[in-house]
Design goal:
Elements: E1 16-18, E2 24-26, H1 27-30
Antiparallel strand pairs: 1-2
Length: 48
């Protein structure tokens, strides 16, 4: 996987994620329709 360096104000690169229930979600399908926020919760569903 290639590493991309982003700077403030750069558009997000295209990506696809697998969501709950296995449904794919792609940024390209949302661009221009809605705002998208991507968050990473480290160890969110683990005890402790």
């Amino acid at each position: 996987m290639a590493t991309v360096e982003l700077k403030v104000g750069d558009p997000a690169p295209e990506f696809t994620l697998q969501g709950i229930g296995g449904k794919e979600w792609g940024l390209a399908e949302q661009r221009g329709k809605k705002n998208a926020v991507l968050l990473f919760y480290v160890l969110d569903w683990t005890p402790g």
